[in-house]
Write a structure and sequence with these properties.
single chain, alpha/beta, Rossmann fold, 2 domains, seven-stranded mixed sheet, two-stranded antiparallel ribbon, 14 helices, 45% helix, globular
Length: 330
């Protein structure tokens, strides 16, 4: 029987991403057993210490064992970390980070849930590879791990035995993915039905809230960002915008990408799409009206940009997130 280890880091403060995987794989084992098959995994929680307090002592986790006592593992699962102090939790877990790297070198596959990607990336195992995490932690992740190809649009990434997933409860989709890989499709479908998880969901793009990327020190670019945000309907070229701030287009683009991770055109698109999303989530305006209200004049172009950013067409987005969508007319 293979061994699955759900690690419990020091400073861990996310109970659902520890309990969730434990319940998922316990249920998968039970289903396999009921079909007359040998369970795939022995499932254990392994902590840095013998007890970890969560949520100011409201809950506690008492792992089956400690990482020091684990002599073998086939799959490690790293749970999500508290968003408020990601760097502090990483700093507390040097021993665990080294242990995860060593386990992988000995043949263990590794999966991270949500912000658990910060611990996984700290091992160096994600360098040059694709990775997902919660969209709300994306800017901090990119700053900390520039050598990792962050894909916040993805629910799941699979890099030859190193798995990551997007934010919050999307980890359930990663659990289904792993159950199908290590058990079979039938067991994954059973778990999807029992835990009522949409097995086909592959993107988290439409959940992303774009708040602008202003956590940088380039004041000129911040001013340019503000200008774009305050002039959604204005018609100006990026050459004109660069000139407004006494920069050449090439230098303007370079500084904009360095500061925000987006080109000026991409930034303008994301600002407009974010405004369009808010309009589509409430009210009864048509898609065409929303398009004009955020500065587009061509429906095909608007649909293309909207789907590129969110993964959905404007109509599909409205149908998904507007409670009155059933009575709205396009």
């Amino acid at each position: 029987m293979k061994k699955l280890i759900i690690v419990v880091p020091a400073g861990q403060n996310n109970l659902s991403s520890v309990v969730g995987p434990y319940k998922f794989f316990t249920k998968a084992n039970e289903y396999f057993r009921n079909r007359g098959k040998e369970p795939v995994f022995e499932v254990q929680l392994a902590g840095v210490s013998k007890k970890e307090e969560l949520y100011d002592g409201l809950f506690s986790i008492k792992p089956h064992t400690t990482i020091q006592a684990v002599d073998h593992s086939d799959l490690l699962i790293i749970p999500a970390l508290a968003h408020q102090d990601l760097q502090e939790v990483v700093a507390k877990n040097k021993e665990l980070i080294d242990w995860i790297r060593e386990r992988h070198q000995l043949g263990s596959e590794v999966a991270s849930i949500c912000t658990g990607a910060f611990l996984l990336a700290s091992t160096g195992l994600l360098n040059g590879k694709s990775c997902s995490t919660h969209w709300n932690a994306a800017d901090l992740f990119r700053q900390a791990f520039p050598e990792v190809n962050l894909r916040t649009d993805k629910i799941i990434t699979d890099e030859q035995g190193i798995y990551t997933n997007g934010g919050a409860y999307s980890f359930l989709n990663l659990m289904l993915y792993l159950v199908e890989k290590f058990y079979d499709r039938e067991t994954a479908l059973f778990c999807a039905k029992v835990f009522q998880v949409d097995i086909e969901r592959s993107s988290q793009s439409f959940f992303i809230i774009f708040n602008g990327q202003k956590d940088h020190s380039d004041e000129v670019i911040r001013d340019a960002q503000s200008y774009i945000e305050q002039n959604l309907l204005a018609k100006f070229s990026m050459e004109e915008l660069a000139g407004r701030f006494a920069l050449s287009r090439r230098n303007f683009d370079r500084r904009f990408v360095l500061a925000t991770g987006n080109t000026p055109v991409e930034y303008q698109q994301r600002v407009r799409v974010e405004q369009a999303k808010k309009m589509l989530e409430s009210g009864r305006r048509s898609i065409s009206d929303v398009m004009y209200d955020v500065g587009y004049a061509d429906l095909k172009a608007f649909r293309g940009v909207f789907k590129k950013v969110t993964g959905l067409t404007p109509l599909d987005y409205r149908n998904k997130f507007n409670k009155d969508a059933a009575v709205l007319l396009n």
